[in-house]
Each structure stands twice: as C-alpha cells, then as structure tokens.
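Q: What would this chain look like folded?
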Amino acid sequence: MADNWERRWQPLLEQWVMVSARTAARPWSGAMSTGSATTKRAHDEGCYLCPRVIRANGTQNPDYQGAFAFDNDFPSLSHEAPVQASDHHENLLTRTAPAHGKNRVLCWSEKHDDTLAALTPEHMRQVVHLWKTEYASLSAQEDIANVLIFENKGEEIGVSNLHPHGQIYATSFVTDTASRMRTAQANYAQAHSGSCLLVDLLNDAHTQQHLLVDRGKHFSVIVPFAARFAYETWIIPHTHLPSLVHMNDDHLADLAKLYQRQTRRYDLLFKRSAPNITLLHNAPCDDTQRTAFEPVDTAREDNPHWCFHLAFQPPLRDPEKLKFLAGFESGANNIVNPVQPEQAAEQLRNINVNEWAL
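A: My prediction, written as structure tokens:
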C-alpha cells in the first residue's frame, strides 16, 4: 500500500487528490524547517496583541485575561467598500463586486508565549465558547453570508505576529471553497435520501478501521481518505451539526478536548510547537440575507445539508521538511500527498498524548 500511485476523490471539494507515498523518499537538498529558536516572553511590549499594549491605530488593549477579540485594525474587508458601477457588475470580462464584510482578531491567551496546546482545559473551553459567540454574532448580521474562523500558527505559515491568536473573515459573499462544499453536501444528501456526507464518511468501515485517530463523546478525529496534506486531520461530529450555534455546552467541551489533544499530537509528531493552519467550516449564513449588489443564490436552500467540521492542515511532511505546492500542483490544482493517509492515521493514533509537556 505504501508504494501505490492512485487518485482519491475528495468529496467535499469534488476534486481528485493524488497519493504518491514514494515521493517522500526522494533525496532532499531543499529548504529545511527546524522552527524558531527564539524564546518568547510571557508579555511583549512590542506585540500589539498583548494586554495593555497600544496598537498601531492608537487603541490600547485592555488588561485582558484569557480569550479576547477585537476588530482587525488593518482589515481585508470593510462595510465601507464602495459599490462599483453597474457596467462592471454586468460585464463578465471585467466584473467587480464590493469586498464587504468584517475582520476580527481572536487572542487565545494574554500570554505571548502560550499556545492552544498549552492552555488549561477550562481556558481551552473559553476559546471554543468564543468561537461560538463570534460566529453567532457575525452570522446574524444581515449583510454577512459566510463566517470563516481560522488560525495561522508558526513562522512557516508566514504569520506577522507570533502571539497565540486566530482570525475571522466574515464576508458578504460565500467563499469559493464554501460554495463547493455546500453544493457537494447538498448533492450527496439528494442522492442518498437526505444522509449527511461527513457523518457517512466518518461511519464508513474503512474510515473506522484505518483512518480514525481519536474518538470523543460527540466528535471524532480522522485523517480524511483523500487528505491533501501529509498529516491533515478533520474533527467531525457524530451527528449532523451545521455550525457552532447548534452545539450545546457538552458538545463544545468535547470539541475543546479533542482539539487540544490533536494539537499536542502534532507537537509530539514534529518534536516542537508545530506550525498549522486550522479552519472551522461552519454553514454559510445567507439563508435570509442578500445584499442588493449580489445576484440571487438559489444554493441558499442547500445550507441545511451543511455539516460542521474542523480541519487541521499542517504544512510539514516530517519534522524538517515543508510541503510546497509547486509547478504541477499550482498548475493542475491536483494536490500530491506524499504520505499514505492510512499510515498517517496510524502514526497519529499511536502517539501517546499524555507524554506532551511544555
């Protein structure tokens, strides 16, 4: 199995992923990643995310404890974006639309040297409740159609600030990835008597036998069958839950526990505080909202088929090598995974999370 060359169908994105485990054994003389040797302090006066620090726009952060959220001072989106002239709106060759929306910054901790893996269980639950509160608030706004919560962690990802934090992009439009996922889940439900694509994927015999990493009361961690990254994992609910607002305190506590256990697995696997991109895929929220400059989106009726999932996309293929999307993958949009997903799941499953230490 380790030497196979095959394509696997990624059902959420409706595209092929190439699995070629032999490429991991290629001689390597390219860039290496060992992580930063810099020791961070618990409070950094030069960090605009630390408590009491005055940010670039002149606002002083409160002396906060735990999780803290505020509007991004340098947003990629704005409700003040102008509405372009109709000639551009209707011309398919030069079409434009406003980038309306809101950007939020989510600090996980007041400590500059913290990580989500290092938080206390209670503190981790505060973070997950912050996710729910932020999603609930933003998704209820009439001009917001999609809310993506994410974390870019580590210098390898290119983060501009190493304080433990995430971001939210709340957009007036449904993103390209969300549109693909929504259509895929709705099509699957229609073809399978209303079944949930992700719940069926989780309960599939191959997933349960070969791809399951961890199981909680309400959620499980798996390596997806068509993983696009070497050690990609998803957290999937055991029953259909469209978004964070559909989760009770028991759900959130289980999600927090499994999330933190998985971040610790990555730290142990890569032998350091591991870089990662984490994405919380909640249902689009354009059911009743539509701004005047956007066309009617008939796919809004498909939102009920959406199932929440959380995706980890670590950029490392081993402790020292990064996964780069170079010529073929950038040009073809068919990702080549150099690690067999079943082998990745076995490696992650066999890690003793209790060995994790600061």
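The chain has eight helices and twelve strands.
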